[in-house]
Amino acid sequence: MEMLGKTIVEGKTKVVHQHARNFDQVILVSKDRITAGDGARAHEISGKAKVANDTTCTIFEFLNSVGIPSHFVARSGDMMVAKKVHMIPIECVARRVAYGSYLRRFKTPFPVTEAYRFPTPCLEFFYKDDANHDPQVTKEQLLSNPLLLDEAKQLRLTPKYVEQMELWTRAVFETLERAWAVQGCTLVDMKIEFGIDMQGRLILADVIDNDAWRVWPQGDRRLMKDKQFYRELKTVTDADLTEVLKKYEWVADAVRGFKARRPTACIAVGVDAPNLKGAQTKLQHYSALTPISLTALQTISEPTVVVTSAALFASVASITACPVLIADANTDSAVLREQILRILARDDHVLWCSLHAEQIAATVAAQN
Ligand SMILES: Nc1ncnc2c1ncn2[C@@H]1O[C@H](COP(=O)(O)OP(=O)(O)OP(=O)(O)O)[C@@H](O)[C@H]1O
Ligand SMILES: [Mg+2]
């Protein structure tokens, strides 16, 4: 316990401590507590903290393994060590299926049909303000009126951060949705939060545990495993709380099965020679995959990211029969990453071109 420094903030379901020896880190300690309706309903469930911490650590480990940056540093018994961040008081919600508050908010004059499936995930933002029941805010509100996060540091939620939050929310949702699908479950919706680290980078923060989503085995609402079961209880008996804990344990166990899938595609990134170094650095920073050299490409047995010069790109394309992702060094890193994640998450044959890369593509086409 010598790791635990002073309490920074205590919420309904966890306490955040300063790391006693490392100023840049915090320790998140979950509580044996479950709440619903802004805390209007609350119960103690002995053993819930341990399960919640286990779930959230497993999820962050999984997300890190596919290259999604977060504040997660390490598991430490029943606690989580994380980077200290400046929390952004916005809940980012992604939905595949219309349910819950979404149905209540959009009633007249055209109610949304229950269980309507959004072809692309529906993204929503909510301002964290318990007293006002976390009002919904639009992306445009956030863009046009950058939220002041820290007066002293003049830290604002700039449009760049807003765009990144949206991109990452989509990427996290699609990644988790895919992982749950492998377990035979539908990820109906999800809530995540972000923070800004000491270097000014936006990263995933807070927790992603069984309170953060709706999960339905076999897509069947009646089999729900998440906190919604507790929310819907008319009265809460001890037997109910035992049932809740059982569901949470089931989820903690299921997420242990989440595996980073090896990509089935080769991703070749063609860039102009002067920008090659920059692009390689970007990829290494943002990709979970390891770039290799062109010569090594001929012997690879595993799908790989190849960073090459524009001139050599045609050779790469002729060596591999794999689908290719084309970008250039000017391509925004976050965009590049998302494209890579998409390839990993699906088996799409993606050909994605930036302006410069179109010329490369034309070269390739001319060669074939
Ligand atoms: N890496 C981090 N650094 C600093 N604070 C963090 C970090 N991750 C999470 N927090 C903060 O921990 C606090 C406690 O979490 P908890 O979920 O218990 O709060 P809560 O009562 O549910 O209120 P909230 O509506 O903010 O979630 C939250 O205010 C959250 O912003
Ligand atoms: Mg919370």
Automatic annotation (TrEMBL):
<comment type="pathway">
    <text>Purine metabolism; IMP biosynthesis via de novo pathway; 5-amino-1-(5-phospho-D-ribosyl)imidazole-4-carboxylate from 5-amino-1-(5-phospho-D-ribosyl)imidazole (carboxylase route): step 1/1.</text>
</comment>
<dbReference type="InterPro" id="IPR018236">
    <property type="entry name" value="SAICAR_synthetase_CS"/>
</dbReference>
<keyword id="KW-0547">Nucleotide-binding</keyword>
<keyword id="KW-0067">ATP-binding</keyword>
<keyword id="KW-0658">Purine biosynthesis</keyword>
<keyword id="KW-0436">Ligase</keyword>
<dbReference type="GO" id="GO:0005524">
    <property type="term" value="F:ATP binding"/>
</dbReference>
<comment type="pathway">
    <text>Purine metabolism; IMP biosynthesis via de novo pathway; 5-amino-1-(5-phospho-D-ribosyl)imidazole-4-carboxamide from 5-amino-1-(5-phospho-D-ribosyl)imidazole-4-carboxylate: step 1/2.</text>
</comment>
<feature type="domain" description="SAICAR synthetase/ADE2 N-terminal">
    <location>
        <begin position="8"/>
        <end position="243"/>
    </location>
</feature>
<protein>
    <recommendedName>
        <fullName>SAICAR synthetase/ADE2 N-terminal domain-containing protein</fullName>
    </recommendedName>
</protein>
<dbReference type="GO" id="GO:0006189">
    <property type="term" value="P:'de novo' IMP biosynthetic process"/>
</dbReference>
<dbReference type="Pfam" id="PF01259">
    <property type="entry name" value="SAICAR_synt"/>
</dbReference>
<dbReference type="GO" id="GO:0004639">
    <property type="term" value="F:phosphoribosylaminoimidazolesuccinocarboxamide synthase activity"/>
</dbReference>
<dbReference type="InterPro" id="IPR050089">
    <property type="entry name" value="SAICAR_synthetase"/>
</dbReference>
<comment type="similarity">
    <text>In the N-terminal section; belongs to the SAICAR synthetase family.</text>
</comment>
<dbReference type="InterPro" id="IPR028923">
    <property type="entry name" value="SAICAR_synt/ADE2_N"/>
</dbReference>
